Amino acid sequence: MTTFVLLLQYTLIFASVLTLVALGGCYSEHSGVINIGLEGIMVMGALGGAMVMRFAPFTGFTLVIASMLGAMISGMIYSILLAFSAVNLQADQTIIGTAMNMLGLALATVIVKAVNMAENTSNVSSTMVYVEQKKSFIIRFGHFEFNWFMLIALIILVIAFIVLYKTRFGLRLQSCGEHPQAAASVGIDVYKMRWSGVLISGALGGLGGLVYILAGVSEWKFENGVAGFGFLAMAVMIFGQYKPLRIGVSAVLFGLFRALGSVYTGFPLLVALHLPSTVYNMLPYIVCLIILTFTSKNSRAPKADGIPYDKSSR
């Protein structure tokens, strides 16, 4: 397999992760709730999908669908913590999201270790192995490995654009993030819309977590988390101006820099620089800082984003 094919392959799979998670954050932010807990949601979604892959009696495309549902449901259930705290209790959304990131990683690690110990008392690892199951998610076209999630991410991207800008639900959702009092005055249930935005965010974030673990080789340690992809997805969302199509383009750009960390040894020019491999692994985060430094001030978040909704205020 040529280096350029590998680069394209890794770029698309990492872009798929970022697209799904960033779109999830986009729904939440358009409803008026900041979802900093995407990192924790990704971990819990990865846990749900991995559990299905490990214990479900399915194979082939049925396993793909079952794993997707497991990841999405797990992400939605975990996002209830944010929805209830931020919408109903009007708690600080930044603190809630930070707590969710720490709790999700710890909770998933404990659950996986408990599952491993139940099968083998000497196995206290937080690792899950899914070599055979992974084959169900891949179709080969010559040297190129096509992952089903590349297509799924594209479909969800198109659906997000249609939902947000062409449907009554999407327009109502955005109105709750711009001016919730005005939305409520015309009969829109702001609480319900914000719950919907957060739950959709949880479903897509959980699905992104599943795609992330499938981007690896054959196993993943839950205690390692998702390497900051939740925060990177937020950067993609901000750089994409909270708009689905721009988010898709931004995800490909950031995915390209992340992919270089996996295949840079195939480029003689990069090898000749004699830089440590960690530098290439840091590239997407360095690029993220540079890009946001120059573009974040021009980014326009929804006006009521992060502001708890109070019926009595006008």
Describe the protein.
The protein has 314 residues and is mainly α. The chain has a domain of 210 residues. The protein is built from 13 helices and four strands. The strands form two sheets. The protein has a two-stranded antiparallel sheet. It has a two-stranded antiparallel ribbon with strand order 2-3. A hairpin with a 2-residue loop joins strand 2 and strand 3. Helix 1 packs across helix 7, helix 1 packs antiparallel against helix 11 and helix 2 packs across helix 9. The chain is globular and about 60 Å long. The model has no long low-confidence stretch (mean pLDDT 88). It is a multi-pass membrane protein.
Computed CA radius of gyration, to the nearest angstrom? 20 Å
Question: Biggest β-sheet, characterized?
Answer: 2 strands, antiparallel
Strand order of the largest sheet: 1-4
Low-confidence stretches: none
Mean pLDDT: 88
Q: End-to-end distance, in Å? A: 61 Å
What is the number of helices?
13
